[in-house]
Amino acid sequence: MRATVVIPCFRPDDNLEKMLGDLNAQSSKEFEVIVVDDGNAEPIEPRIQAGLNRPHRVIRFEENRGIVAGLNVGVAAVRTPYIIRMDADDRMSSRRIERQLAFMEANPEVDIAGSSMAVFGSGLRVWTKPAEHDTIVAGLLWSPSLHHPTVVARREVLQDNPYPEGFHLAEDYALWLTLAAKGVRMANSPGVEVYYRMEGQNTSQENTQRRSVRYLALWRQALATLLPEGLEHLEPGLDAGCHHVLAGVPLPEGWDRPSLSHLVSHVDALRTQLLLHGEKTGEAWVNRAIQDLADRLDQASSRTKWHKLGSVWALSRLTLGDWLLLLGRSR
User: d(Cα 139, Cα 143) in Å, to the nearest integer?
Assistant: First the structure.
């Protein structure tokens, strides 16, 4: 076996069987599966046994311990060279594992890689991330630069760097920051490999507000990790909502949109800290981050909804097989 698919599972609905069907349909047979039963009232092992024809193990918690514990226990149990992430209610292309293993073999300098993913359930769109390592690290100043459900990693990378506690719904972002600070090489392949289910609470206004508030703490973590000596100079812009606007994230309820002069001041302060960090460390991602600042300021000042336009254009990445599965016609 070359890879292990790790799936934490809490309160799965009937989409679990659809995901198991996608595993059974994989063109590659060089993988096994670890499912972590995170304290479900009814053990899920009978459903796994009935629905999955691949070699597998089920690790059961007698009480719910949360996704971080589930991920870390599942990752620690892996014995194959590669670890592949999957969620219990998502779908994936039939060649996902084959293509992602081929990508890692063709790029031995890459330690962890994601891909594009189609988002379905509340409309249909495709989310992409930058391909190159330096652009990925620069992007971590604003958001996660890998789609967590799409990730494939060399086993030792995740086993040596467990998911951190204390980052609710953002354990992946916190981990990517840790890996970037350690020089772990990252990449994203362009193809759509995972179909991410987004519906119900995921799309609610309440959840959008929680995300807006949560991101403020995450950006402080990102800046403290990537620019460890400059956070105090960036606090005024963070507190004024400048980072929200430049990142394309809605402002928390009750916050006024910062003025253009505030945005310019925050960009100038961030550019200064990037230059200082680059002079000290010589890290190549800094130059990419500085280039990105100008683009973000232009977009923010014109109020162009660039992130939404980009996801519409990215629909061209879907193949006929993707469309058939997403429309429910393939199986």
Answer: 6
